Amino acid sequence: MRTFDLSPLYRSTVGFDRLFSMMNGAEAAPGYPPYNIERTGDNDYRVTVAVAGFGENDLSIESKENTLTIKGSKQTQTEQTGEVLYQGIAARAFERVFQLADYVQVKNAVLENGLLHVDLVREIPEAKKPRQIPIGSANGNSPPQVVESKVAA
Q1: Domain over 33-76+85-125 is classified CATH 3.40.30.10
Q2: Per-residue pLDDT band at 62 (split at 50, 70, 90)
Q3: Selection from 30, 153, 54 nearest residue 109 by Cα
Q4: Where are the beta strands (DSSP E) in the chain?
Q5: What is the pTM of this model?
Q6: How many CB atoms neighbour CB 96 within 10 A?
Q7: Over pLDDT 90: what percentage of the chain?
């Protein structure tokens, strides 16, 4: 395992201390259920979680502030048709939490073929987008005018 020294970044950034502490404390995350995170466009993302054996009623998705939480809990089945000799398909409850960047919102979620696809989009408000400021030229304008002038006597 590699260790990164992030101290040079602390000198030139403001407000990212939470991000750096998360990176420093990143341990091996539990591997169940497996997931993918992919970029599908400039501002579009998709989180895909493998939830084989779970139905729509067994899953819940919650988006709060900058956190996306996906929970799954399998309803217990009392009737079994036979004796299970080996159970390799995990049906245990899980909770997977993803930290979202600012202005990232959940667009929709689809369950197909045992995969839960959660589509995300980054929508930056107009007030936060960069804007161009026109620069006027001194040649086309009248010369600067003196508003008030005092002569020392």
Answers
A1: no
A2: very high
A3: 54
A4: 35-39, 44-50, 59-64, 67-72, 94-99, 104-112, 115-122
A5: 0.63
A6: 19
A7: 37
